[in-house]
Design goal:
Number of domains: 1
CATH architecture: Alpha-Beta Complex
Strand content: 5-15%
Helix content: 40-55%
CATH class: Alpha Beta
CATH superfamily: Protein tyrosine phosphatase superfamily
Number of helices: 6
Order of helices and strands: EEHEHEHEHHH
Number of strands: 5
Largest sheet: 5 strands, mixed
Length: 135
């Protein structure tokens, strides 16, 4: 089972989730699941459509925002905007959670949020964003 790492009251990140884990996430109260993985990144990875179907059938929203390498500024803004507009907690996932938290943090930083705070929040969730956010 993937670990949902809480970053803020409104955002958690995770490594790859299965359709069953997607349903469990919605049952835990997540209202939006953001998939930052491109389909076919590695053999055996669940297709985004499978995860999306599970999320939507469980009653939540889904966004496929695939990131390869470091998120672009546009992807970062889209991730932060989607998380900010959600009506409740958001789960973002990729292979390890790193691209997901990086995209969110870059978008938050671009919107003026304190970079040191973002680095601290990421560190508390087990991610080092100091090289990304200049801390």
């Amino acid at each position: 089972m993937s670990e949902f790492r809480k970053v803020t009251d409104r955002l958690s990140v995770s490594g790859q989730i299965s359709p069953d884990e997607a349903r469990a996430a919605v049952a835990e109260g997540f209202v939006l699941v953001i998939n930052n993985r491109p389909d076919g990144e590695v053999p055996g990875q669940p297709a985004g459509a499978e995860v999306e179907a599970a999320v939507r059938a469980a009653g939540a929203d889904y966004l496929h925002l695939p990131v390869v390498g470091r998120p672009t500024p546009e992807q970062a803004r889209a991730q932060a905007a989607a998380a900010g507009a959600a009506s409740g907690p958001v789960l973002a996932f990729c292979r390890s959670g790193n691209r997901s938290i990086t995209a969110w943090a870059m978008g938050e930083a671009a919107a003026g949020r304190d970079r040191a705070e973002l680095i601290r929040l990421a560190a508390a969730a087990g991610y080092d964003l100091s090289s990304v956010l200049g801390g």
